[in-house]
Amino acid sequence: MTTESHNQAMLVFEAELDRYGADLLRWPDDRRAVAEGLLESSSSAQRLLAEAAELDAALAAAFVAPPVPMGLETRINARAERRDIWLEWLTTTVLMRPWRPLGAACVPLVLGFALGLSAAEDTADLEDSVLVAFSSSEPLAVEPTGEQ
Asked: S-S: 53 plus which of 22, 39, 77, 82, CB 3.0-4.6 Å?
């Protein structure tokens, strides 16, 4: 291996150490084979791997999992059960009480109509040309006026 290709290989190896860490088992198979070959022939690659292993160990030692609040699992399970109750209320009695899912589906429809009607009342002070521009599917040709 020439000096230039060795230096290039070391740069690539160092970048991949930063990317994948010192544990070669976490590396992609093709890159791991190249790294193992470089480690067998280069003491500087071995030194870089040792430094990366020290950094990985320091980071692992510095990581402290946050404490889990008391009763968290119970609260999560209670919420999940409440969701199941609503889903059951809507779906299991469809044949016996079909108004439930129909009523639930109509809520957004009614809200949409109410919002649409309230927005239509607020357009009274807009100019007619603006209303026509937004209501037409064809582009509106506006002729310039002398007013400034």
From this structure: 22
Would you state the pLDDT for residue 106? 82
Residue with token string 């590396």: 27
Q: First CA to last CA across the chain, in angstroms?
A: 78
Q: What whole-number distance in Å separates Cα of residue 124 and Cα of residue 118?
A: 11
Which residues of the chain fall below pLDDT 50? Answer: none
CB 21 within 8 A of CB 29: no
Token code pair at residue 80: 């999940």
Distance CA(138)–CA(68), nearest Å, equals 60
DSSP character string of 100-142:
HHHHHHHHHHHHHHHHHHHHHHGGGGS-HHHHHHHH-SSPP-P
Q: What is d(CA 48, CA 9) in angstroms, rounded to the nearest whole number?
A: 13
CA distance 15 to 101: 57
- Rounded to whole angstroms, the Cα distance separating 12 from 106 reads 61
Q: Are 47 and 25 in contact (CB under 8 A)?
A: no
26-50, pLDDT tens digit by residue? 999 889 988 999 999 889 999 999 9
